[in-house]
Design brief:
Length: 151
């Protein structure tokens, strides 16, 4: 993926995701399958991911030989009651962190793409692969939201 492709993906996927925060209360309760997260839970998760990735990306860029620990999203969703929690602050977190992560990608994607770190579950990775994963991860969940809304 080129830097321009990555930045375009961040923009396109981010704009589409932000629109999902405008769903109705009924739409927020829809799921894409039995036992799956509802739209509200997915949106909270996406805000969490942007925040977590912002911290990860900065640590990878600034500190050599990082070990980045995975977090357990289901535990967060349960502990913080994402099934019913309001989304107003999550939207602001999503927007700000998405903008900050885009700026990091714009500055560092080409200058240190091979900077390595270890992810606690995925093993050895690079800064570029992590920046790309942020885009594909968001798109995956955006598709789940679309599926839930059309079910």
């Amino acid at each position: 993926m080129t830097k321009n492709e990555l930045l375009n993906a961040y923009d396109r996927i981010g704009e589409a995701t932000e629109k999902m925060f405008d769903c109705t209360q009924e739409e927020f309760t829809k799921t894409y399958g039995p036992g799956k997260w509802n739209v509200r839970q997915i949106l909270h998760h996406l805000a969490d991911v942007e925040l977590a990735f912002h911290n990860r990306l900065k640590k990878i860029i600034a500190e050599p030989k990082q070990v980045i620990w995975a977090y357990e999203p289901d535990m967060w969703a349960n502990e913080f009651s994402y099934k019913d929690a309001p989304l107003d602050k999550a939207l602001r977190v999503y927007q700000l962190c998405r903008e900050l992560n885009r700026e990091l990608a714009e500055t560092y994607f080409e200058t240190m793409p091979e900077k390595e770190f270890v992810h606690s579950k995925m093993g050895l990775r690079t800064l570029a692969s992590e920046m790309e994963r942020l885009a594909t991860h968001n798109e995956h969940h955006l598709n789940q939201i679309r599926q839930a809304l059309t079910a």
